[in-house]
Amino acid sequence: MLRNSLLTLFIAFSIALAAFRFEDNWLDKIVAKFDAYQQAWPQEKAYLHLDRPYYSAGETIWFKVYLFNSGNHAADSVSRVVYVDLVDKSTGKVVLLKKIEMKGGLGEGDLALKDSLRAGDYKVRAYTNWMRNFSEDFFFHRDVSIFRTDTPPAEFPLNADAIDVQFMPEGGQLVMGLEGRVAFKATNSLGKGADVTGAVLNEANDTLVGFSTFKFGMGYFTITPEAGQNYRIVIRKPDGSYAKYPLPEPQKEGIVMMVDNVSNKENVRVIVKHNKNVPATAEMALIAQTRGDIRYAAKTSMGKRMALFNIPRANLPQGITQLTLFDEIGHPVCERLVFANKNQQLSVQIQPGKTVYKTREKVELEVTAKDPEGNPVSGSFSLAVTDAGQVLDKEPFGVNIHSYALLTSDLKGTVEQPSYYFESKDPNSARDLEVLMMTQGWRRFVWKDVLEGSPAAQDYILEDGISFTGKVIRGNKKQSGKVKLTFMLQSTGKDSSRSVFMGESEESGAFSVLSLDLRDTTNLLIQAVSERGNRNFDIVLNPFQPATVTLTKVPFNSIQFDANELAQYLKRADEYLRIERQIRANREKMLQEVIIKAKRSDEQKKDSRRAMYGTPDASIKLDMMNSAGAMSIFDILQGRVAGVTVTGSGFNRTVQIRGSANFSGVVEPLFVLDGMPVDKSTIMNIPPVDVEAIDVLKGASAAIYGSRGGGGVIAILTKRGGSNYDWTKDITPGTLVTKLLGYSPVREFYSPRYDKPAPEHERPDYRPTVFWAPMVQTDKDGKAKVSFFTSDAQTTLTLRIEGMTPNGLFGAAAVKLKTE
């Protein structure tokens, strides 16, 4: 029907336009504004590969993060922090949050589900700070079900009567007297496509056109609405009942657009018709852009009522292209999405040594990746191996990294079985993809913002590390003015490393610290002091707020299970969690019973801050007498250490250890704060009351620091830097002590090695996720080796692999293995 209708139009007229023919200034301006907008507002896409689609409270969600540029899909190396959270869909609350460190667009992590987590439907999200400048629709979303082994799964029987049908005119509108197409989508109460039939009737109850769904509840029909007529649509539901809907209201005057992306191999054909009364010199224009890159722009006269644009397929990259038609005054009036499927994806193969394995036997795999031309490629992949008896495949053509990057990330709403359009052998899949483009169109930007040059405010920055912001406030709550700030960071990990750095607030007292490399939880101390030494300030950190959550009206997850389907999984999950709880209880009992008593050795008593140089040449231990009235460390040094001279005043102090000079003048000593080299300005801002001792190293004693210690060394040991001092509990004026959440630590997936005896091998092994390898890297020959051991289950194993190359090619594959 589509082909015949368009062929008739092609015979009636043929006005072909060449691509990129900019003859008039107004089209040039639109293109220039669009390019400027895209440059100012680049976009990112995040994708998560999860090890499976559902879990039980007490288990762990394992994931890999892929971050890539929205335009060319190359791996994103700018944003180094991706936020991954778990949202309770019943309340909209974020129940778990992780900060994932990204390296070259890749990251890994996990979400450990608490035993107390309620059963229900959840959503896993992934986004960068920069992505928060745009709609939440830009985030990665994945629905997951979480069960409890002590609670039977809730059942939601499908109500066949609850059918919702939406009608969407192609291009955005119907116009009286002009033939146009209307796409529709019918969904049931679970959000799945429903098969329906229907017809359009006029006031005389005459049937003008009949129609039925093609795939996933979607279809379209063609109609020419006439003036003075009222139309209604009658739908026959799967249960035989009927429902009535109004036809979308036709406009009296306007433009309609019809697209043929099926019949011609060389061009995408766009037919435009209008009934507007415009001057013979009036023109309209069509712009085609793919992920922010204009691939076609052309104009035509509106002197005739019909026009044809031919867009060469060679101009369009793989993926979704947005077509926008502009009227005679340069306003966007019609839009339509089309998909260019050029089959440009990675060929990924998983080759096991054999197809049948014994329980607890070693499996060795070879992964091969090739580009569309068959050349081996280096790429990063993630592999999940699951027990098919427990992890059911409820969506045969579910989302993967390829279908997400090219399709669902640029469409609004849920796309049912998105990989169908790439992997199915159905000859109608190309037609079904076009209907999808008509029913789920979406704009990643608003043309009004582009044309006015006024996008929304940039509230969130690109993060290339852990960041935090805050404000210094006077005790009287007035504006603080510029304030000198000292920051001390102390890791709570095994190394307990420290770092100190300086900064300055704005006049308003606001400050920000960017691009930190922090791991897990870190203690933070901030000290504020004015130019005159005033410390009467309050310091407030702006708390991190997860991105807002928009709740949908869908009452439950679109993937549903019954108790029989989940019986095996819930049984095994309960057994595994019981064993885990018992192991934890035994470990805690042993820790409570063991008491270790020992004297601290002299080596342990030694101050680790002096480990670099041992015994200093001179040392001043500060007390109330020698620090009274001192405004800085240099006031205490002056005249108290032989051979150390301090000249100048205020912030213009010069320190010299006798003999430290060259032809250029004085060579000042290296300043060290609690074992960390710092600049002189840092030392100037440290209150003497916070200092425990000052060590001085001269001549050969400073040689341990190399050329940096050529002028000697002055080491400041603070009370807070001492091994026995808990500065996190210290509260003094102008000081804030708090904790920061850095990059979430990476945990290793537990995969037993049954070729080496171990006590834990005595426990039964029926894990639903048998193996998880998030960082499988193919070499220059496109090869990678992976190995794991099967579990105790005599079952079928599902092996799923996904991944990408740095330049933006995606691929996914799945194979089955049997264990007996």
Automatic annotation (TrEMBL):
<comment type="similarity">
    <text>Belongs to the TonB-dependent receptor family.</text>
</comment>
<dbReference type="InterPro" id="IPR037066">
    <property type="entry name" value="Plug_dom_sf"/>
</dbReference>
<keyword id="KW-1134">Transmembrane beta strand</keyword>
<dbReference type="Pfam" id="PF07715">
    <property type="entry name" value="Plug"/>
</dbReference>
<keyword id="KW-0732">Signal</keyword>
<keyword id="KW-0998">Cell outer membrane</keyword>
<dbReference type="InterPro" id="IPR012910">
    <property type="entry name" value="Plug_dom"/>
</dbReference>
<dbReference type="GO" id="GO:0015344">
    <property type="term" value="F:siderophore uptake transmembrane transporter activity"/>
</dbReference>
<keyword id="KW-0675">Receptor</keyword>
<keyword id="KW-0472">Membrane</keyword>
<keyword id="KW-0812">Transmembrane</keyword>
<protein>
    <submittedName>
        <fullName>TonB-dependent receptor plug</fullName>
    </submittedName>
</protein>
<dbReference type="InterPro" id="IPR039426">
    <property type="entry name" value="TonB-dep_rcpt-like"/>
</dbReference>
<keyword id="KW-0813">Transport</keyword>
<dbReference type="GO" id="GO:0009279">
    <property type="term" value="C:cell outer membrane"/>
</dbReference>
<dbReference type="GO" id="GO:0044718">
    <property type="term" value="P:siderophore transmembrane transport"/>
</dbReference>
<feature type="domain" description="TonB-dependent receptor plug">
    <location>
        <begin position="619"/>
        <end position="713"/>
    </location>
</feature>
